[in-house]
Amino acid sequence: xxxxxxxxxxxxxxxxxxxxMNGSFMPENVTAFGSFWRDFADHRDxxxxxxxxxxxxxxxxxxxxxxxxxxxxALRGVWIWLLVAVLLQFMLGVFTILTQVRIELGVLHxxxxxxxxxxxxxxxxxxxxxxxNAA
Length: 135
What we know:
It is a single chain. By secondary structure, this protein is mainly alpha-helical. The protein has one domain (about 1-125). Helix content is about 60%, strand content about 0%. The relative contact order is 0.13.
């Protein structure tokens, strides 16, 4: 969702440094409005801050999930796709920021979100509960 906010507000065009945002973890402008929702969902600085930090959280969670459950028979072959998809998506996001949102990288980053979502859905489908017998 914050990827859509970032694209819609053109928030990726500000703070084109990484890993810090122009030398700060959280620049002062992130909380300029003083309202939690306005700062983090309707303000370019706050939206980019949330998007960057959600990227770290999602990447860590997916890598942890993939590594922890890689020995499951149900995830045979899928866990590696999860790792590749999340690492590629993370790197595309960083390069998109560093290039001041070159359109090609921005589009690839959005496509990467679809690839990552597909890999996650495949993993969830494979690890879901079995259907009850139709007998």
